[in-house]
Design a protein that fits this description.
This protein is of the alpha/beta class and about 475 residues long. It has helices at about 5-10, 15-30, 35-40, 65-70, 75-85, 100-110, 115, 130-145, 160-165, 170-175, 205-215, 245-255, 325-345, 345-360, 395-405, 430-450; strands at about 45-50, 50-55, 60, 120-125, 150, 185, 225-230, 235, 240, 260-265, 290, 305-310, 370-375, 380-385, 410, 410-415, 420. It has a 7-stranded mixed β-sheet with strand order 4-12-11-10-7-5-6. Strands 1-2-3-15 form a 4-stranded mixed β-sheet.
Length: about 475
């Protein structure tokens, strides 16, 4: 371990002078749409393993990991070596076959459940998760001859025009008039805030009943859809694992209606939930799988969809993308899978996930903690006002800032950004999880106690020399 955790997870003042200079220059020259530097005010010098070092020498434990694109941490030496070896050989190949692409494809198919390995095909898309969603919906419409799509409240599928159209976040949709037509939203199994107003004690998975009715009501106004698209753990929506019965019934209803089932595994895929894909834990086989983010293992962009062979109805050139032949990403992706297999990374995800559950379980007596939930190494802590049930985005933001000033990078999400989220590296050690998650629990306790249950706005930074 290159850094001592006790020395890393200590207070510091941010931003330092060198970081402040670059942040100011960025503010003058880059788009107003930039987001992460507004909440994480530092400029990066380098990163290795689970650590990020800023220009002023501050070291942070990174539990954001490039929004989940770095399953083995930053600059893994074997992945750096694989990229360096491939770079002078061949870097960009459109959709031409190469030996390294063939090996990558073979290994990706081998990671599927055995029943899907010989019945699936891969399509390499543009290198973003949003483009895989575009490709999946486009394929579903082409294969079925239909045009309607069912999506779910709280879902997030990207900020392209189509990705935004099937995402629930109104903040991004409102400024853009006339998004893609034919998209219908159904309730998702968000049990701590039941979308149909029930309690856990009275729940009969009526959220699934709503989708079933939507797909069968001959006077319901929704034509038979081409596809139903969902996340099995809503990531940006607040780390909400879907209820198993909900998924079973939605999938059955979709298939009865002749709709294809698209599973967005952009964030949950590549081992994040403890299996290579989250759908493996839900007992069904999707028609189309979207995957991207962590495919290369090192942050070099890749995106692909995996789908049943019988729906491969595209004509040549139907869905292309100049950067779909990223040979560097194929080389590092191959090495990533070999490391996963050699080092038992999926087993580590499951073990560390249980460890996180135990540590975060200590928050059960904090009134402002509405819910703690997660799967594998994808976790969220939802904060609310216990007197009103309303979200507490100000408290979540304060927790993020205090954690950052003590050396831990975490993310926010959910309704009103009231969910504190973590995406640790999948090879995280027991020691790292213990130290970082214990710090986060202590931060939440301290901030909740000082925040109070009435004030729901932003407050002055707590517990840090800022």
């Amino acid at each position: 371990m290159p850094f001592d955790l006790d020395s890393v997870l200590t207070p510091r003042s941010l931003p330092g002078p060198r970081s402040a200079e670059l942040l100011e220059r960025q503010g003058r020259r880059e788009s107003n749409a930039r987001s992460y530097p507004r909440r994480l005010p530092f400029a990066i010098d380098r990163a290795e393993g689970p650590y990020v070092i800023d220009l002023d020498g501050n070291v942070f434990v990174d539990f954001l990991m490039g929004a989940g694109v770095l399953p083995l941490g930053h600059s893994h030496p074997e992945l750096v070596a694989a990229a360096a070896e491939q770079l002078p050989r061949f870097a960009h190949g459109l959709d031409m076959p190469t030996a390294i692409k063939d090996e990558f494809t073979e290994l990706q198919l081998a990671m599927l459940p055995e029943s899907m390995r010989e019945t699936s095909k891969i399509h390499f898309c543009g290198p973003t998760g949003a483009n895989t969603v575009d490709a999946a919906i486009k394929l579903a419409k082409t294969a079925t001859g239909r045009g309607e799509v069912i999506s779910f409240r709280g879902g997030f599928h990207g900020t392209t025009h189509l990705g935004m159209a099937v995402s629930g976040l109104l903040e991004q949709r409102q400024p853009v008039a006339n998004t893609t037509p034919g998209v219908h939203f159904a309730p998702y199994s968000y049990c701590s805030r039941c979308p149909v107003g029930l309690t856990r004690a009275t729940c009969s998975v009526n959220c699934a009943t709503s989708t079933e009715t939507q797909l069968t009501d001959e006077n319901g106004g929704v034509l038979a859809p081409a596809a139903v698209i969902l996340e099995l753990v809503q990531g940006e929506g607040g780390v909400i694992p879907a209820d198993r019965e909900f998924v079973t019934r939605v999938v059955a209803a979709a298939r009865a209606a002749g709709a294809l089932v698209i599973v967005d595994e952009v964030q949950t895929g590549c081992g994040r939930t403890g299996t290579w894909f989250a759908f493996e834990q839900y007992g069904f086989e999707p028609d189309i799988v979207c995957t991207s983010k962590a495919l290369s293992g090192i942050g070099t962009p890749l995106g692909l969809i995996i789908y049943r062979k019988e729906i491969d109805v595209w004509a040549p050139g139907s869905h292309t993308g100049t950067f779909r032949g990223n040979q560097i990403g194929f080389a590092t992706g191959v090495r990533t899978l070999k490391i996963f297999q050699r080092e038992g990374v999926l087993a580590n995800v499951r073990a560390r996930g249980q460890q996180v559950a135990g540590i975060f379980g200590q928050l059960a007596d904090v009134p402002q903690v509405r819910d703690v939930r997660g799967l594998g190494l994808m976790w969220g802590i939802e904060l609310h006002d216990p007197a009103t049930g309303q979200a507490l985005p100000g408290l979540a933001k304060t927790v993020q800032q205090v954690a950052l000033h003590h050396g831990l990078i975490v993310e926010l999400g959910g309704r009103g950004d009231s969910v504190v989220r973590i995406l640790p590296p999948l090879n995280a050690t027991e020691e790292l999880i213990e130290a970082a998650c214990t710090l986060l629990v202590g931060t939440i306790r301290r901030c909740a106690a000082e925040f109070g249950t009435v004030d729901r706005g932003d407050i002055t930074l707590v517990g840090a020399d800022a």
